[in-house]
């Protein structure tokens, strides 16, 4: 009898007691692990973006004890570091032969903010990796993907918490399921980019804003608590800036919100947030000024890319750029207007990763009785407007290489909150009730079918429809682990293994050579003549050049007839079509195509087992 009683009690606990929550949580967790495993088996691929490889190789250098140095060298970074050091030592004749460009040894990174590389460095330091590609997954990349998928789990949980806190449990569940089924967030999780990590920081900012908004409506605001919360908000914004520089513009919506919605002390709260922001960012800004004389290094100039003087990546490839061309206001106005149109026409309709984002735009017109729902909606609108302008002005050729999955996509950070408001709008007309946010009685409550049952059916149908992009991805063909063209890691590791540690490679995919080849590599200079020789003859000799489909897949007609002889496109076409190398060019040996099938490898002497004849200039 006692055994039967224990069994009955246990069943009751599982069905109606505390065990019910545990079983439900275990089921959700098992479902997520199953989804995670299937996605990684079916849809995982190696890094496809230059930013991901750049950040990863920087993290590995940090983990290896090389400091904040990069193996991916940009000619423009060489220019900034050299100019700064020459200005410091201009009155010291003894330093004439010094390495002002800091290119003969480890080169300081002045492109990437520090937080995300340090996070990855911790992962690479803790887990022992063999950096061999083989024919499948690159182990450290897969570990980075798993880390970002952990951040995705945390994002789902925070979305549930925010939806429940601002509205109710049903909103929390539906919004978190939509975030879990958001196909772009899964793509970002295997991209190696900092987006999933930055999304957590943004949600932490949202939580802080919600807390401040709640306290601001009290009859007697706790002034000390409010100032501490505002300071924390600024620190979080600064922390996000040190994860991605463009995110720093979040300080504008933060300060506007604090001024408008935190009472008489709103200006003081805004100043506290700005102070926290400055405290977080200033030490790193000072480091950059010491290294290169610029507060944000190369990143501070990248806004000039895709303007008329600097198409594509030409600014970063310039060894001696004309700085005056960077500061032309008309170029930025034209860039803003040109890039805003595709954001308004295309990106706004895909805010939530699917058509569900359109419900958010429609829901902006809803009238909420709750103060929190209304005020947070205004904050999201401020963030959306700010991110749209920042994306338009800050767009570079990175967005052309990988249009949707890139580090310049800031609007993706709004997805959890957008989906929360989209769910609210859906439930307005599909059977949801709510106590805080201000839902109205809806039509399902007037139907003869039991409201509770129909509500869950409609909610489930809504979730499936919203998650169709991810479902199609999961049901599609299995993804190749290699992102080729242009990246074929086995060949990159092969040509890098032919080089000594102190020898310099030049390439059109230097981020891939630095990451997969674990070798110092400089980007192709602005041309194959004057700037190349300025680097090779006066700063550091180049012992090899590795060209891939990134350069050689250009259009044949325009490459032969529409380019000047000094371009690298013309250089590669002359070599491939006519076996011609410019006169006096220092690299005369070309690896046979069968040895490096994915690219063109030139070097100063034969470095491979099979003999390859030199090509006469």
Question: Can you put this structure into words, describing what you see?
Answer:
The chain is mainly α and 617 residues long. It folds into three domains: 2-42; 142-300 and 346-475, no CATH class; 489-603. It is 56% helix and 4% strand. The chain contains 25 helices and eight strands. It has helices at residues 2-16, 18-42, 50-63, 75-88, 115-126, 139-166, 169-180, 183-189, 195-216, 223-241, 251-261, 266-292, 329-345, 356-363, 371-394, 398-401, 415-430, 451-466, 468-475, 489-497, 510-516, 530-538, 549-552, 556-561, 568-578; strands spanning 69-70, 72-73, 107-108, 505-507, 521-523, 544-548, 589-590, 599-603. It has a six-stranded mixed beta sheet. Helix 21 links the parallel strand 4 (505-507) and strand 5 (521-523). Helix 3 (50-63) packs across helix 5 and helix 6 (139-166) packs antiparallel against helix 7. The chain is globular and about 80 Å long.
């Amino acid at each position: 009898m006692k055994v039967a009683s224990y069994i009955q009690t246990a069943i009751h606990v599982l069905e109606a007691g505390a065990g019910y929550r545990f079983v439900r949580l275990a089921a959700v967790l098992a479902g997520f692990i199953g989804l995670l495993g299937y996605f990684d088996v079916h849809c995982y691929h190696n890094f496809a973006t230059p930013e991901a490889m750049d950040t990863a190789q920087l993290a590995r250098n940090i983990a290896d004890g090389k400091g904040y140095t990069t193996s991916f060298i940009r000619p423009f970074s060489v220019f900034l570091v050299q100019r700064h050091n020459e200005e410091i030592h201009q009155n010291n004749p003894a330093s004439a032969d010094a390495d002002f460009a800091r290119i003969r040894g480890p080169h300081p990174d002045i492109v990437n903010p520090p937080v995300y590389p340090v996070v990855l460095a911790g992962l690479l330091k803790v887990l022992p990796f063999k950096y061999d590609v083989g024919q499948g997954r690159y182990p450290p990349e897969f570990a980075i993907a798993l880390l970002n998928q952990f951040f995705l789990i945390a994002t789902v949980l925070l979305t549930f918490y925010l939806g429940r806190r601002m509205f109710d449990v049903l909103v929390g569940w539906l919004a978190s399921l939509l975030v879990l089924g958001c196909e772009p967030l899964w793509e970002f999780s295997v991209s190696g980019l900092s987006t999933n990590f930055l999304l957590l920081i943004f949600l932490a900012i949202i939580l802080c804003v919600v807390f401040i908004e709640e306290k601001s409506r009290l009859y007697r605001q706790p002034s000390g608590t409010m100032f501490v919360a505002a300071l924390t908000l600024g620190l979080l914004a600064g922390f996000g800036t040190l994860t991605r520089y463009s995110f720093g513009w979040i300080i504008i919506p933060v300060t506007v919100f604090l001024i408008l919605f935190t009472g008489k002390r709103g200006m003081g709260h805004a100043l506290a947030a700005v102070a926290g922001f400055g405290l977080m960012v200033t030490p790193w800004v000072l480091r950059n000024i010491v290294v290169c004389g610029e507060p944000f290094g190369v990143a501070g100039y990248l806004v000039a890319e895709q303007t008329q003087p600097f198409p594509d990546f030409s600014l970063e490839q310039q060894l001696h750029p004309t700085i005056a061309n960077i500061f032309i206001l008309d170029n930025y106005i034209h860039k803003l207007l040109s890039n805003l149109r595709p954001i308004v026409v295309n990106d706004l309709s895909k805010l939530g990763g699917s058509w569900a984002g359109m419900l958010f735009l429609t829901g902006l017109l809803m009238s909420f009785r709750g103060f929190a729902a209304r005020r947070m909606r205004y904050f999201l609108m401020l963030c959306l407007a700010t991110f749209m302008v920042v994306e338009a002005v800050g767009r570079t050729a990175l967005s052309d290489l990988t249009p949707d999955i890139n580090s310049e996509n800031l609007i993706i950070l709004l997805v959890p909150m957008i989906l929360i408001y989209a769910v609210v709008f859906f439930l307005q007309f599909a059977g949801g009730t709510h106590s805080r946010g201000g839902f109205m009685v809806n039509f399902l409550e007037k139907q003869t079918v039991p409201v509770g049952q129909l509500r869950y059916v409609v909610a489930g149908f809504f979730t499936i429809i919203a998650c169709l992009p991810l479902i199609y991805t999961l049901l599609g063909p299995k993804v190749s682990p290699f992102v080729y063209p242009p990246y074929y890691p086995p060949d990159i590791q092969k040509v890098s293994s032919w080089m000594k540690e102190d020898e310099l490679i030049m390439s059109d995919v230097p981020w891939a050579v630095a990451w997969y080849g674990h070798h110092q590599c400089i980007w192709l200079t602005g041309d194959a003549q004057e700037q190349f020789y300025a680097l090779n003859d006066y700063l550091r000799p180049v012992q090899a050049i590795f060209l891939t489909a990134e350069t050689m897949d250009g259009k044949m007609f325009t490459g032969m007839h529409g380019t000047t002889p000094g371009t690298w496109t013309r250089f590669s076409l002359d070599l491939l079509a006519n076996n011609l190398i410019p006169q006096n060019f220092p690299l005369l040996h070309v690896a046979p195509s069968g040895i490096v099938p994915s690219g063109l490898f030139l070097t100063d002497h034969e470095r491979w087992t099979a003999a390859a004849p030199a090509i006469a200039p």
